[in-house]
Amino acid sequence: PTGIDDRKRHGSLYKFGTDLLPLYEYARMTGDAPAREAFLQGVEYMYRFGDRPHAASHLTGALGGQNWVNIAFAAAYRWTGNDNYLRVVNDQIQQGVKRMENIRSTVHANAFFLLHTPVGLRLLAEANEPIEPFPVLSWDRDEAEVLTVLFRKEAERAVKMGIYLRLSEREDKDADPEVIVMRDDLEVDVRVEVEKAFRSRNTGRRDDHGRHMNLKVPARHPEGAYSLRFPNAERILILDSDAKHMRPAGE
User: Fold this and answer.
1) What distance in Å separates the CA atoms of residue 35 and residue 163, rounded to the nearest whole number?
2) What secondary structure does DSSP assign to 155-207, as a single string?
3) What is the CA radius of gyration of the chain?
4) CB contact at 8 A, 48 and 77
5) Is the pLDDT of residue 224 over 80?
6) How far apart are CA 150 and CA 132, in angstroms?
7) Which of 15, 24, 38, 137 could form a disulfide with 238 if both were Cys (CB 3.0 to 4.6 A apart)?
8) Distance between CA atoms of 32 and 24, rounded to whole angstroms?
9) Cα–Cα distance between 180 and 186 in angstroms, integer?
10) Closest by Cα among 216, 212, 214 to 153
11) Helix%, strand%, coil% for the chain, nearest 5
12) CA distance 108 to 114
């Protein structure tokens, strides 16, 4: 697999999701616990950072590549029960349905997603509740824009978010994201944990400015409407959140 040696031509992040599938099959056939854990770590990394640094989409689209996203996340959901993985599977299937009419007979734009659609459809059929969209919100901004997100916090309950950010190219590669959370025009303190994307030796296949953030608004803050901004990020995806009524300002 590519992931074993980062010195290969495209680096260890090139289609590393495809490399996870033999690992999954090995773990399933043998019951090998380290193999299973390695597979789940790989899927979780893709959830946080995507699988294609600097690509237009966070995860490979439903009609691109070999559609390993669908089956990898479906398998991870079966093993973990993590609803975030089910949200990814649902998104992949919805993408495929919408894009079927655009299929062309090329190696990277065909009906690959059909190969693993039955796996995802079965999971959707077994779901007892509506499946939340993936991601919750996403946007790319130009240099003159800082998008503001609004959300509501309930009394005596914390708000948690998992967020992928790509910092502006003008930022240093080791810079941290700027986060501003406000209520009634006053900034409130929040807890953040920031992780940098893996930096492959292959500079064309890495994202020096990619970050994943776990953000928490503590329960002690009062209930009400809050705003959230990331001034030095050019791309933001709120992957998951338990905040209520989240929406871009102005909508």
Assistant:
1) 27
2) TT--EEEEEEEEE-TTS-TTPPPP-EEEETTEE---EEEEEEPP--S-GGG--
3) 19
4) no
5) yes
6) 18
7) 137
8) 10
9) 10
10) 216
11) 35, 25, 40
12) 14
The model carries a pTM of 0.87
Angle, nearest 10°, between helix axes 33-49 and 83-99? 60
Tally of helices (H runs) and strands (E runs) in the chain: 5, 10
Looking at residue 205, its amino acid is R
97-120 pLDDT, tens digit per residue, is 777 666 655 555 555 556 677 888
Cβ neighbourhood burial of 185 (10 Å; 0-12, 13-18, 19+): exposed
Cβ neighbors of 44 (< 8 A, separation 6 or more) are 76
Q: Running DSSP on this structure, what letter comes out for residue 23?
A: H
Contacts of 73 (CB under 8 A, 6+ apart): 43, 47, 85, 86, 88, 89, 92
Take residue 208 and report the two structure tokens written for it: 């020096």
Q: Which amino acid, one-letter code, is at 126?
A: E
The closest alpha carbon to 237, from 153, 143, 152, 141, belongs to 141
Q: What is the pLDDT of residues 26-39, one digit of tens each?
A: 999 999 999 999 99
Q: Is the CB of residue 89 less than 8 Å from the CB of residue 77?
A: yes
Dig out the tokens for 63 from the structure. 């009609």
State how far the Cα of 70 lies from the Cα of 113, in Å rounded to an integer. Answer: 8
Sign of the dihedral defined by the CA atoms of residues 106, 108, 109, 112, in that order: positive
CB 25 within 8 A of CB 34: no
Residues recorded for the chain? 251
